[in-house]
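Appendix B. One record, verbatim.
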Amino acid sequence: MNIRKTPARSKEPALIYELLVRLEGIEPRIWRRLWVPGTVTLAKLDRVIQTTMGWTNSHLHEFSIAGKRYGMLMDEDWPDEDNPVLEDKRYKLGQVLGEVVRDFRYTYDFGDNWRHTVMVERTMAADEINTWPQCLAGHNACPPEDVGGIGGYADFLEAVGDPAHEEYFAMRCWCGGPFDPFGFDINATNAALRKLR
């Protein structure tokens, strides 16, 4: 009996995106450089950015990519018929970026309005060391949750940086102790990312 073998499908290797995520409006700059597989959904990319920046995923978010909006669908959302929010868990990073999109925006917490510019620095083929989300580098701590946006963060830093400030003790208690605006631990960040897998 002669059995014909079906030819093996050639699976094109997944692209890995090297992304530079920068929080807008704060100096010195707060940024992270990441490797993210194109196979992750935008919902998972949200979790990756949250983890590497130091946010706690306590608020809504939105991606703005190539003129389209992606986020969580909420019943109480105001409809924008011209540019509706697409459900981010249904779209993969590689699907929306391809090899054309070079930058996009990620907004977190519509009250504090933390806007991040995300730049695609390069793409590469997947190999044994880059097939999961990783943080390659970063600089400075992100602001605490619910600090009040850029202006509130400036006030917070002024208070926690001056023991003579009238809000010094209140702000230290509110944020749970000392706050180092220059603190960033890449080892702890990658350990937290590994738990997302």
